[in-house]
Design a protein that fits this description.
alpha+beta, single chain, 362 residues, 13% helix, elongated
Length: 362
């Protein structure tokens, strides 16, 4: 598949690496037909009702082709240092009746030994074809060899069955597109329709939470909440970085790659036990979330806890969402059978509020 998917338990996400500048990297092959000056290039077409009526087997109502840096992505939780995509070409199509486009990315190069002449072929992951390209005498981009299963997994027809495959695949006339050159901003706006930004979420965590500053988020569940959630084990929870975690990052962390390598601590109390249990996790930015792996820094474990993962994501109005898909919080013994597999209790997703640092004191 061409899209990169990140799943964080009930908080599933399909987001991508950060948007870079407008000129190609020095080692990126340049297709001067598409971009004579080396800047990002956009081509597109929106078909009118008359055209679609005359081509009933064409599903695509809108199509845009972008040659340059990733227009799907935007600055988020991944560090900016390694954010640029390896793809150099992107296609987005919206079929009749759809509210948002689908997209695919790949690599386009000349099919010649010197890489500077001949037909332009665009490949995708898994040795598949994205399209073939040429520019006509009027500067329009001719896009051919678009496959019906462009957005589907290889072998999808066998897996889905013919009827469902035909429903999801592109139409029989979805090829030989003739696209007009357009401003790069037009393509960026089109690709932005794929995953519109929710303004209520505010800045990403990596911007909201600074490498050299503590933070504290948490929640205390009252009797009414616990009464309506009898399968919830957690009574209180805190997610924080304090003096210990700050000192650890200051000693060996890289602020350019923040939040990679950032330690956080999570303290919990449960209905069954009055005592507080604290566990340390080491985080890294991954698409629109922090993926945090349990660490043995604080104590010894009889099992390998490096597969115990939780996920942090920004929530609306300054909150933080914590996903615990696979029983990775110390509300149970993390080496016991009760901690094996998916979280069985009603402790999968938490909405946490910012709190004063004193609320997260040991």
């Amino acid at each position: 598949m061409t899209s990169r998917t990140v799943v964080g338990a009930g908080l599933g996400a399909v987001l991508f690496a950060a948007l870079a500048g407008t000129a190609f990297a020095d080692d990126t092959p340049k297709l001067t037909e598409l971009s004579p000056n080396g800047a990002d290039a956009c081509f597109g077409r929106v078909y009118d009702a008359a055209h679609l009526k005359a081509h009933p087997k064409q599903k695509v109502a809108r199509i845009f082709f972008y040659y340059g840096h990733d227009p799907v992505s935007r600055p988020n939780e991944e560090p900016s240092a390694g954010a640029d995509s390896s793809y150099n070409s992107f296609i987005a199509t919206t079929v009749r009746g759809a509210k948002a486009p689908e997209w695919a990315g790949g690599w386009c190069n000349h099919e010649s030994e010197d890489g500077k002449s001949g037909p332009i072929h665009c490949g995708m992951d898994c040795d598949r074809t994205l399209a073939s390209l040429k520019v006509d005498e009027k500067g329009r981009l001719i896009v051919t060899d678009v496959q019906p299963d462009l957005y589907l997994d290889a072998g999808a027809e066998d897996e889905l069955g013919k009827a469902e495959y035909d429903r999801q695949a592109l139409g029989k006339e979805d090829d030989n597109f003739r696209l007009d050159p357009m401003p790069a901003a037009t393509c960026k706006a089109e690709f932005a329709r794929i995953d519109p930004i929710d303004p209520a979420l505010g800045p990403p965590l990596r911007e909201r939470l600074k490498p050299d500053q503590p933070f504290c988020y948490g929640r205390d569940y009252d009797a009414a909440h616990l009464g309506s959630h009898p399968d919830q084990v957690t009574q209180s929870i805190r997610v924080f970085r304090g003096s210990v975690e700050l000192a650890s990052f200051a000693a060996g962390g890289d602020t350019v790659n923040w939040p990679d390598g950032a330690d956080i601590a999570i303290s919990v109390t449960t209905r069954q036990k009055s005592g507080k249990v604290t566990q340390t996790y080491s985080c890294q930015g991954e698409a629109d979330q922090w993926r945090c792996v349990a660490s043995a820094k604080m104590s010894d474990f009889s099992c390998d806890i490096t597969q115990k993962e939780i996920f942090l994501r920004r929530g609306a109005n300054g909150t933080m969402m914590l996903a615990n898909p696979n029983s990775s919080l110390p509300i149970v013994d993390m080496c016991s059978k009760a901690a094996e597999g998916k979280t069985a209790s009603d402790d999968k997703v938490y909405r946490l509020n910012p709190m004063p640092q004193s609320a997260c004191s040991p």
